[in-house]
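Dissemination and training. As part of the outreach component of the grant, students in the summer workshop were shown how a complex can be specified as a set of sequence lines and then modelled as a single object. The example used during the hands-on session is reproduced here so that future cohorts can follow it. Participants entered these lines:
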Amino acid sequence: MAAGLPTEGTNSTRPRAGTVARIDVPTASLSERLGDVRDRVRAAGWEAAIVTDPQRVVLGLLGAKELEKDPQLTVEAAMKPGPSTFRPYVPIKEVADFLVKHDFPSTPITTSDGKLVGLLMRSDAVREAEGCPDCVRSMI
Amino acid sequence: MAARIDRDQLQQLVAGGAQLIEVLPAKEYDEDHLPGARSIPLKKLDRAAVATLDPKQPIIVYCWDVA
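and obtained this result:
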């Protein structure tokens, strides 16, 4: 609804995907060389990057496994295309349960038009969910 | 005349005095709504409710994103 921006109401202060996601996740474009992206990502202390178009629409994910591929590849050839995403308003326990069930280390958080909000790490989601076991959707 | 707007346009319009209306049920509004929004549930969106709006200012109506 608010694309990760603040809302008002009784649920507005509870942790949700968009409030726990790390918004400083590195991004890369399709035509970049994987080796260049890997160097940049690791220098920033990350093991993942989101591939976006110029409008920040998510196109793919470069996780630790993808970053280990041939550095001469383009990002487009190396990325995991079309990753599962969640909307910012989703209660944190829902996302944490999904990430644990499917053994995903992270998931991009996007707006309804596919634009990147941030990357939600499983460790962050599980930690927040443990502190808010009733953080599940009561509406819709 | 109704027009679909994006997030940036919404923020600009609200900053300029537009009226922001959530049409979900009141319980859902109580739980979560955009800052500054008023609640007029769709089932109560009748002539009397419309009469409370300022016809000189844009009216933005939203529900929920489930896409």
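The longest helix of chain B spans residues 7-15. Students were then asked to discuss how this feature might be tested experimentally.
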